[in-house]
Amino acid sequence: MTARRIIPCLDVKDGRVVKGVRFQGHADMGDASELARRYRDQGADELVFYDITASPEGRTLDYAWVRDIARALDIPFSVAGGIRTNDQAGRCLDSGADKVSINSPALERPDLIAEMADRFGRQCVVVGVDSRREGDDWVVHQYTGDPDASRRSGRRTLDWIVEAQTLGAGEIVLNCMDQDGVRRGYDIEQLKAARARLTIPLVASGGAGSARHFRDAFVEAGVSGTLAASVFHTGALTIGALKTELAREGVEVRP
Amino acid sequence: MTVAVLAYGAGNLASVQFALERLGASPRMVSTPDEIAGAERLILPGVGAAGYAMARLEALGVTEAIRAFTRPLLGVCLGQQLLFDSSEEGDVPLLGLIPGRVVQMRPAPDRPVPHMGWSRLTRERHDPLLEGVEDGAYAYFVHGFVCPDGQATLARADYGGPIPAVVRRDNRWGCQFHPERSAETGARVLKNFLELPA
Fold first, then answer.
1. What is the distance in angstroms between the Cα of B160 and the nearest Cα belonging to chain A?
2. Which pLDDT score, from 0 to 100, does residue A55 have?
3. Active-site residue flag, B178
4. ipTM above 0.85, yes or no
5. A145-168 exposure pattern, b = at least 16 Cβ within 10 A, e = fewer
6. Whole-number Å distance between alpha carbons of A155 and A100
7. What is the mean pLDDT of residues B55-75?
8. Is A165 helix (H, G, I), strand (E, B) or coil?
9. Based on the structure, what is the number of domains in chain B?
10. Cα–Cα distance between A97 and B12 in angstroms, integer?
11. Which residues of chain A does B19 touch, with a Cβ-Cβ cutoff of 8 Å?
12. Chain A residues within an 8 Å CB radius of B183
């Protein structure tokens, strides 16, 4: 079959990787390309680069920087941050990115998903969803890169992911914001609910703190990949040690 | 060693170019029939929809030059699919260099589609393109359509059924996975391609 993917997420601000707790108070974690190479050597299956300030600042990311990453890496990576037109997505892919991830702009104009899928194929189109519990349900938030701009989008998470899939998304990254950065584990209940509604790959994001958390997301929630940031950036867990533990638990991972 | 990469507006051009450069090659981007005819070896990259890719090849007027190419040709991902007769994707005719029809993959509860991620290669038979690639090596796949499994298959992956991962007919090879994104395994395949006698 296919190995479960371990995906370090590099939140980038001005070329530096930053990661805060619950998205606020960003702390500098190192140079982006340096961290990228380190994760590749440790056995990362894929990398995600989020220019976290691009969307709230109304700009897109730096294509030269995407090229530098593409030149250095021999594993797949996706980029995100302020991509709101087919032309911008095309330039990211032309620069060597394998996938582009869209979030707030897809909420503003869902047809963007269909336009990108028609032009580049759905396998290039990742829809990122920032989701937060509200009563018995989960709702979508947008502009989450900036605490001042962040707000509810007015959509239910489980409706939005299905709509995104129908429009042409090739993968959903579900970021469970209540969990983000606090390392108490992925939101298994929410991920299970999402997995049951999708036929495309689902990637879990938010909450990883131990090998057990990754194992639960794969085994209990059935996700294809797990995204994590601070647990790797801080060195609390190495990808090699994580994969050894997952293999021992019977999860297929790439050595 | 000169290698040409077809630039036709439907390919993962930069990542293929960079992967070749990491191996010390100096790939040339080409887009005309004459440039194709003059190439020592040719890579046909590709991502996206088959119909769009074929329309781009037609618009450039290069389909005949690709068909007539007698030195080593490597189709990557969608580029492999384009080597076959036809595709269910948009119901379009393809280059017709390998028999069979490319069909859509069906998702199952534990098997989302697109097939996205690292899968093991099982070698069907020996070939210079797979020299040094261990049986069971992982390669990175991203696709929602699958080539027909037949005599051309050199290596398979398994995803609810056989996935022709590497194919060959005569001087034409195909890789369903992305060698440019498959770490050491992919680099080895590309290196082998560069070393095929032209």
1. 7
2. 60
3. yes
4. yes
5. beeeebeebebbbbebbbbbbebb
6. 22
7. 97
8. helix
9. 1
10. 8
11. 74
12. 40, 74-75
Residue from A231, A237, A239, A241 nearest A29 by CA: A231
- Integer angstrom CA distances of residue B25 from A14, A52, A188, B98, B186: 32, 36, 46, 28, 15
A74 → closest Cβ in B14, B159, B186: B186
Q: Answer whether residue B1 shows pLDDT above 80.
A: no
Interface of A with B (CB under 8 A): 1-5, 40, 45, 67, 70-71, 74-76, 93-96, 98-99, 118-124, 170-171, 198-202, 222, 224-225, 254-255
Which CATH number do you get for residue B50?
3.40.50.880
Burial of B95 (0-12, 13-18, 19+ CB in 10 A): buried
pLDDT in tens, A151-188: 888 899 999 999 999 999 999 999 998 877 677 899 99
User: Mind telling me how many Å the CA of B138 is from chain A's nearest CA?
Assistant: 7
A75: nearest CB among B21, B48, B181: B181
Q: What is the mean pLDDT of chain A?
A: 89
Domain that holds residue B146: 2-195
Closest CA of chain A from B109, distance in Å: 7
* A128 pLDDT higher than 50: yes
A98 vs B15, B22, B184: nearest CB: B15
**pLDDT for residue A19:** 63
**Tens digit of pLDDT for each residue in B73-105?**
999 999 999 999 999 988 889 999 999 999 999
Q: Which amino acid, one-letter code, is at A208? A: A
DSSP A236: S
